[in-house]
Write a structure and sequence with these properties.
4-stranded antiparallel β-sheet, Four Helix Bundle (Hemerythrin (Met), subunit A), alpha+beta, 3-stranded antiparallel β-sheet, 563 residues
Length: 563
């Protein structure tokens, strides 16, 4: 969409050739009774009909200046001509957070536009610039920090009129934004009526979860194939480093890459989460059992989640570590074969470039690895078909494919895989030696993986150390935030999170007796932050924090030879 002259170009691939489709622009009106879905009462504008050309369907259109007056472009919908965007949508897309912030800044330039670069000055005067909605929680020009802060408040405090749960119920910051059996057991002792356990004490919600599976395995009931079909049991994925794992236009959220309604993006994810997990009864009636997040709340939640964790992947090519993790890095990158040809050996980096969630070409894959075929999964767990809604001949619904997660955060966010099938990072690597992964078809295609036990340990050591390095980075960031705060009560939260990250780093290293000298520095940093958490005056407190940060720097210098 050209915001200067109103021309719009649409290209769609893969639609059925025997159907016709219209393009609709949607303005979600901020009315309490309406959701983010296209509904009667929203602003709807039919842009035109797609025309088929080969395997592509195209539309070229031009908006007249007054056509979309006071219209905010919240969504673009490709809909079957038998209906409208309300009842016949096939594809959905929304402006990204970056676009919303960028164009909002353009609106805020005013008289200073002439002093800006030509293209940006032109944007500020563009007739159609007001189509792109600005984040409601941001100032004008937009303040990203304010937007993130608003999203954080919503994430941890907003119940959306439901059963008492918040996003933070299953994604607590103090447990790496995930839950596991040990955390659940501790929470049950401390707060037995926490909303996480609502299925155990609210008769209207007794089938919201499977309490035994949640307590024993950390599994949550998800109706990913629709509420008219049996649910599946899944672990809770952490929300760290999302910025590094989401591609466009398919952001592939959730364990099977189809966890978000509508356009399938992170922006829409909370809509599905509220409907699934926050409801007062299993009737799931909007505005009775819960209210759906508004567009503005969704944008703020997206901004907060994108701010969590790393903002980029490490460069493993330049990263130099010490043995055995250095050997593990070589295996991770080049495989287990003598020639170092990744086409002949271990293929870790093929799916996890730089130990992240993307391939080297930037694709977040969905892959059927065979985890569902492990022979020792607990009884009572239904088969999970993964991506898609179609019946699977092996049971469940879907293609059997699941989404590729990042590995930098793996060592301290187990259990592992979508169903929490294994407990340790070593077991998760060993799985790729199993018959469940190395099927005859995969072996015939040259896609198998075989590692010796010492090679499994080396790769695990590599993943443990880069996880410890990331925990050190995160702890430093939290400590730095605490230094900017005068009041101790406010500084305690980032200090507590920093201490937790350091504890995680110590745990993942000491479990395999890795980098003992770095562990000593980490323990010293933890003690200093704990003292800072008990120091009222900002000056002495910051001196302790600064010393702790230096100890974190020292620990990294031991683990990382160069980068």
């Amino acid at each position: 969409m050209d915001l200067k002259d109103g021309t719009v170009s649409v290209r769609v691939y893969g639609l059925p050739e025997d159907r016709q489709f219209d393009i609709w622009l949607v303005d979600n009106r901020p009315t309490p009774s309406l959701s983010v879905k296209p509904e009667p009462g929203d602003g709807l504008f039919r842009l035109g009909r797609l025309r088929t050309r080969g395997d592509t369907q195209l539309l070229e259109a031009k908006l007249a200046a007054g056509t979309v007056k006071d219209f905010k472009l919240d969504m673009v919908v490709v809909a079957d001509v038998v209906g409208s965007a309300i009842d016949s949508g096939w594809l959905y897309g929304s402006p990204s957070l970056f676009q919303r912030l960028y164009y909002a800044e353009g609106r805020g330039l005013g008289d200073t536009a002439a002093q800006e670069p030509t293209s940006f000055a032109a944007l500020a005067q563009a007739p159609f610039k007001l189509l792109i909605p600005a984040p409601a929680y941001a100032a004008d020009p937009p303040n990203l920090a304010a937007l993130v802060a608003a999203g954080e408040h919503l994430f941890f405090n907003e119940t959306f009129g439901g059963n008492g749960r918040t996003c933070g119920t299953c994604h607590p910051a103090e447990n790496n934004f995930t839950i596991d059996p040990k955390f659940i057991a501790r929470l049950a002792r401390q707060r037995p009526r926490d909303p996480l356990f609502v299925a155990e004490f609210n008769p209207d919600l007794r089938d919201l979860e499977k309490p035994e599976l949640m307590r024993k395995f950390g599994l949550i009931l998800e109706n990913v194939d629709g509420f008219d079909r049996p649910g599946v049991m899944r672990g809770v994925p952490h929300t760290l480093a999302l910025l590094t794992s989401l591609g466009t236009p398919e952001e592939r959220t959730g364990w099977s890459g189809d966890g978000s309604p509508g356009g399938g993006d992170l922006l829409s994810f909370a809509t599905g989460a509220v409907t699934q997990h926050f409801t007062k009864t299993l009737n799931r009636v909007k505005d009775v059992d819960f209210r759906l997040p508004t567009d503005d709340e969704l944008v703020a939640l997206e901004a907060f989640q994108l701010s969590l964790g790393r903002q980029e992947d490490p460069d493993l090519v330049t990263l130099v570590l010490r043995d055995p993790q250095a050997e593990g890095k070589v295996i991770f990158l080049k495989g287990t074969n003598p020639t170092g040809d990744p086409a002949l050996g271990g293929r870790c980096s093929a799916c996890h470039s730089n130990a992240g969630a993307l391939t080297a070409s930037g694709v977040n894959l969905n892959v059927n690895t065979g985890v569902e075929d492990l022979p020792d999964l607990a009884s009572g767990i239904p088969r999970d078909g993964g991506f898609g809604p179609d019946p699977n001949p092996n049971g469940g619904f879907g293609t059997g494919a699941f989404n590729t997660p990042s590995l930098v955060e793996a060592a301290d966010t187990g259990p592992f895989f979508h169903n929490n099938a294994v407990e340790t990072i070593e077991q998760s690597i060993e799985f790729f030696n199993s018959e469940s992964f190395n099927t005859p078809a995969r072996l015939d295609a040259g896609g198998g993986i075989q590692m010796e036990p010492e090679q499994v340990e080396a790769v695990a050591a590599f993943l443990r150390v880069i996880n410890a390095v990331e925990n050190g980075r995160s702890a430093t960031a939290s400590a730095t935030v605490a230094m900017s705060v005068n009041e101790l009560n406010i500084a305690k939260r980032p200090l507590t999170l920093g201490i937790k990250d350091i504890a995680d780093a110590i745990k993942v290293l000491t479990a395999k007796q890795l980098e003992p000298d770095a562990v000593d520095d980490l323990r010293h940093a933890r003690r200093l932050l704990d003292r800072a958490r008990q120091t009222n005056r900002q000056g002495p407190r910051n001196a302790l924090i600064q010393s702790a940060i230096q100890s974190l720097v020292d620990a990294k210098a031991i683990m990382v030879v160069s980068e």
